[in-house]
Design a protein that fits this description.
The chain is of the alpha+beta class. Helix content is about 15%, strand content about 40%. It starts with a helix and ends with a strand.
């Protein structure tokens, strides 16, 4: 009798384990479906794309192209470093004035690409894909604690923390021509005790500077080799 009861308990435990594993698997599958590809929205005006460059993480993407005010059908052409068209990157239909169309799901691995529209026609714009390193920077009253940076060329995310400054702070990264570096703005201003990050920034060799005009701080040198 005791053996029979033990067997029943063992079978019951196995059933519970199977149900638990099934539920976990269903949850993981649902999460995978939910995450899906990232949609990149691009708009074309006469002779150009409004977005002049892109820095992205490796992953799956859908490119959504809108024709703002061009009186002809437009397209989208994505090339890899070998100048071959990237798989599934063609639009489902050409884009008439005021219309929008999407590509299929495009898988981008680390490297350099370019996008253009031969029908507009537009220049070739750079799309960089890479795994970024996170650079952490702390601000205190009137200054950054890190007073200069030396980095190698590549992909970066800048993470900025506000340490006991009683106002919202920012981050301003300029290249050698004093233009703000693409994607280098924080996602939100940083209140006392808070942290925020930039987008993915591609840094080519050269000299840059970073500062916070809201603190305000000095301009600090960032050298990229």
């Amino acid at each position: 009798m005791k053996f029979f009861q033990s067997s029943l308990l063992f079978v019951f435990a196995l059933l519970l384990s199977a149900v638990s594993l099934s539920a976990q698997s269903n949850h993981e599958n649902a999460m995978m479906k939910k995450s899906g590809p990232t949609v990149i929205q691009l708009s074309q005006t006469e002779g150009q794309y409004e977005t002049k460059s892109l820095n992205l993480l490796p992953g799956k993407y859908i490119f959504e192209v809108t024709n703002i005010d061009v009186d002809k059908d437009l397209g989208f052409y994505l090339q890899d470093a070998d100048e071959a068209q990237v798989k599934r990157s063609g639009l489902k239909s050409l884009v008439g004035k005021g219309q929008t169309s999407r590509t299929g799901v495009v898988t981008l691995t680390e490297g350099s690409y370019n996008y253009s529209c031969p029908l507009n026609p537009t220049p070739h714009y750079t799309l960089n894909v890479g795994e970024p390193r996170v650079v952490q920077l702390n601000q205190i009253e009137g200054q950054y604690e890190t007073s200069g940076l030396n980095l190698t060329a590549g992909y970066y995310i800048f993470e900025v923390s506000n340490l006991e400054v009683d106002k919202e702070l920012g981050f301003y990264l300029q290249d050698g021509s004093e233009a703000q570096v693409e994607n280098s703005g924080l996602k939100e201003l940083v209140g006392n005790g808070e942290t925020s990050r930039t987008g993915v920034v591609f840094l080519a060799p050269g000299q840059y500077n970073y500062s916070c005009p809201l603190n305000p701080t000095p301009h600090y040198t960032l050298n990229v080799r």
